[in-house]
Amino acid sequence: MFRIPLIALAGVLLALLVSACGDDKASNSGRNAGDDGATVTTNPTPQAQTSTQSEARASNDIVSVGMKDIKFEPASITANVGQKIVWTNNEDVPHNVTATEGAKFASDTMRKGDTFEYTPTKAGTIKYVCTIHPNQRGEIQVTG
Fold this sequence. Notes:
- The structure is a single chain.
- With 144 residues, the protein is mainly beta.
- The protein has a single domain (25-143), classed as Sandwich (Immunoglobulin-like), CATH 2.60.40.420.
- The chain is built from 1 helix and 10 strands.
- The protein has one helix at 3-21, and strands at 39-43, 57-59, 62-68, 71-73, 76-80, 84-89, 98-101, 115-119, 124-130, 133-143.
- Strands 1, 2, 3, 4, 6 and 8 form a 6-stranded mixed beta sheet that branches.
- It is globular.
C-alpha cells in the first residue's frame, strides 16, 4: 500500500542529493599558479565584496574588481607585489578571468556572486580577459 509512494519519495530524495552534490565548482587553490609562484584561488561562495564602483577598492591589502555589464570595473588597477586581487561576478551572466600577458592564471567559469583571487609576486604589467566575452579586458600594474 505504501510501497509506491515510498519508492517515489526515495527517488525524489536521491535526485535532490545528486543535484546538491553535483556542483562542478570545486575549489582551485593554487590552480594555474604559473611561473611567478603566485597563489590563485576560486571561491564559489558569495562574498560581501560586491562593489561595482568605477575605482578599485583597496582595503586590508585587497584590491577588488567587479564584473558588471560585460566589463571589469575598473578595467585598469594598480596592486602591490603580495597584494591580493579579488574579482567578483556581480551579474547573472557567467564570466571568467584569464591572464593573457605577464602572468599565468585562469579561473573557472564564475556565476553571480563567485569570486576569484590572485596574488602577484613580481612587479610588471598583467593583462587579462574574460574568454567568454573576448572584448571584456583588464590590466593590472603591479608595483614593487
